Amino acid sequence: MTSATTEAVGTPSQYTFSNTFDAGAQLQLLAAILDQHTEAVLTETGIEPGWKCLDVGAGAGTITAWMADQVGPDGHVTALDTDPQHIRGGGNVAVRQGDVRTLELPEAHYDLIHARLVLLHIAEREAVLRRLVAALAPGGVLVLSEWDGQRRDWMLHAPTPEGAEAFDAFQDALLAELTAHGADLGWARRVPSAMETAGLSDVRAGVHSQLWAGGEPGCLLHLSNAQQLQDALAARGLTAQQLAVLEATMRDPATRAYCYWTFTTTGRRAEN
Q: What are the Cα distances from residue 116, in Å, to 33, 86, 161, 241?
């Protein structure tokens, strides 16, 4: 696809992570961890040529591009992000810059709306959910994937006790920082009930996770998060020594760690 002019709308939200700290690499790690799972779920929605889709928090644009291929030239995909510098538009893809909390969305328009790791980070998540439901066409499907921050058994094996301790200290500081920015670490588990309350039917949910060795995307994402937020995490007690040990542990092939458990929920708007 060729690059397209980006339409800027609304005020970008304050988000724990930014697109300025080696974000291209970080977004590609997220794609490597989650895209296969996301594509499988979206395939099950029945996505087909001619559909109109919205990709909220499109990140690197990998799922936007995948949906564009599925809907073909007669379909259309809108990619929405507060900082869409990594998304390529053109053809049947339109790129919009804006905040899903305030951006005007067309009513009863989209056959498929997808948001991954977005609503858990914003305090107005249930209001945004209602806005997304209103933007679904009759029979349209909403797909939300969120990470669960309540499980704490992500490290299966660390090569050293110091590595395990550094990993736990990092997670404690990170989850505290996310919460301070408005994230709800238990939101992922409540999405099915929230969808039903918002009026969706045929609500289904599943959990996805994968074990990663040091040096693989799941471990490198933990490291990327720590490096991007190192100043904020240091203010919460993570020491420079712990960060160095964490880096060595996340790169050590002997390490075995899970990335966060992904709860993916789908719901459908009634036909009429």
A: 12, 16, 34, 33
**Helix residue ranges per DSSP H, 61-121:** 62-71
Per-residue DSSP letter, 87: -
CATH domain 7-268 topology: Rossmann fold (3.40.50)
Tokens of 229: 């937020």
Which residue, chain included where needed, has tokens 């299966």?
156
Type and span of the H or E element at 96: strand 93-97
Ranges of beta strands (E only) in 136-268 are 136-147, 155-157, 201-208, 211-213, 256-258, 262-268
Predicted structure pTM score: 0.90
* Dist CA 180 CA 70 (whole Å): 38
What DSSP character marks residue 38? H
3-class secondary-structure state, position 134: helix
Q: pLDDT tens for residues 34-88?
A: 999 999 999 999 999 999 999 999 999 999 999 999 999 999 999 999 988 889 8
Closest CA to 80 of 44, 51, 105, 109: 105
The residue to which tokens 């900082």 are assigned: 83
Q: Are the beta carbons of 98 and 82 closer than 8 angstroms?
A: yes
Domain limits, the chain: 7-268
Under DSSP, the state recorded for 100 is T
Please give the order of strands across the beta sheet that includes 256-258.
155-157, 256-258, 211-213
